[in-house]
Specification:
Order of helices and strands: HHHEEEEEEHEHEHEHHEHEHE
Strand content: 15-25%
Bound molecules: iron/sulfur cluster
Strand order of the largest sheet: 1-2-3-4-7-8-9-10-11-12
Number of strands: 12
Radius of gyration: 21 Å
CATH architecture of the largest domain: Alpha-Beta Barrel
Largest sheet: 10 strands, mixed
Helix content: 25-40%
Length: 342
């Protein structure tokens, strides 16, 4: 007898695999498109509700596949319209997704892991540790579920939720494939954010899909960066910079440097000078200064020098913008995701 856990999830089959499976069941190939449309267009996980399929096929789906989609545990809405969703994931554990409407864009911030192993000192997620990797379909399903089940418009996706996506590389690539082929998003509207894994950055540069890349720098001074991001102790900043340059050259694209401004930690004139040096050619980068969202229990506060820091970069000819917090009142901002319930 086949154990339940050995059955694949409905979401794991490719269109070709669906056609092969349907053929083996004596079903016509067009049923594959109908099933895919329920799964990825509507994020519907219960075969009994797939009303254009014959009853016999619906039963076969129930018998042969795991059908659990994302189960909503909490939905929070911010004063600014941002929404945060806490899910029970189909393969176990809970994680969060944030939907951010802003200036005509509707961005979904997806999680790539349950928790995170990297323990960046200023980040709530980092305090949780890593429970497990998400599968590729679980990452893409966060977007499909918001679009299909709620339904919310989606124009952009950022891999900036819980976890370090480049430490779950194969699932990330699978998710990018699903988002572009099954959910119909342009790769140019997908941004992968990393604290810096040079080998994986080089592999991203060679992907057929032209995704955007954001690097969480947070300090261009190696010693200070190591204090903020423990992973930096094992990966020299110069190696990451070379990988970013490779990405720029392969893609003829700019990358984004994310820099969260922490009061008295990384916001001095010397820090701005180091940042300017980091962004020297041949690196092509714009700087995104992030207003820190305080996390209970952590000692960091938002910088009081944001404007002065930005002006110093602008005077040096850098492209530097300030990203205002969205959803901070519901702990949905950068570095705040920690699966708190109300
Ligand atoms: S900032 Fe990103 S990589 Fe660092 S602990 Fe938080 S989720 Fe993990």
């Amino acid at each position: 007898m086949v154990r339940v856990t050995e059955r694949p999830a409905l979401w794991e089959l490719s269109p070709t695999q669906w056609e092969a499976w349907l053929k083996a069941q004596g079903q016509p190939p067009y049923r594959a498109r109908q099933i895919e449309s329920w799964l990825w267009g509507r994020a519907l996980s219960d075969p009994r509700q797939m009303s254009n399929l014959p009853a016999s096929l619906r039963s076969l789906l129930e018998e042969n596949f795991r059908t659990q989609g994302l189960k909503l545990l909490h939905r929070h809405t911010s004063r600014d319209g941002t929404q945060k969703f806490l899910w029970q994931m189909p393969e176990g554990g809970t994680t969060e997704t944030v939907w951010i409407p802003h200036r005509g864009r509707h961005t979904v911030c997806v999680s790539s892991q349950v928790g995170c192993s990297l323990n960046c000192r200023f980040c709530a997620t980092g305090q949780l540790g890593l429970e497990r990797q998400l599968k590729g379909y679980e990452i893409a399903l966060q977007v499909a579920t918001l679009k299909g089940a709620y339904p919310l418009p989606v124009s952009h996706v950022v891999f900036m939720g819980m976890g370090e996506p480049l430490l779950n590389y194969s699932a990330l690539i699978e998710a990018i494939e699903l988002l572009t082929t099954r959910i119909g998003l342009s790769a140019r509207r997908l941004t992968v954010s990393t604290v810096g894994v040079p080998k994986a950055i080089r592999r991203l540069a060679e992907l057929p899909q032209r995704i955007e890349l954001a690097f969480s720098l947070h300090s261009a001074l190696s010693e200070k960066r190591r204090e903020l991001i423990p992973l930096a102790a094992h990966i020299p900043l110069d190696d990451i910079r070379e990988a970013l340059i490779y990405f720029c050259q392969q893609r003829r694209e700019w990358v984004t440097l994310e820099y969260v401004l922490l009061d008295g930690i990384n916001d001095s004139p010397e820090d701005a000078e180091a940042l300017r040096d980091f962004v020297a050619p041949p690196l092509l980068a714009k700087v995104n200064l992030i207003v820190y969202n305080p996390v209970p229990g952590l000692p960091f506060r938002p910088s009081q020098r944001i404007e002065a820091f930005q002006q110093q970069l602008l005077r040096r000819g850098l492209l530097a913008t300030v990203r205002q917090s969205r959803g901070a009142d519901i702990a949905a901002g950068c570095g705040q995701l920690a699966r708190q319930k109300p």
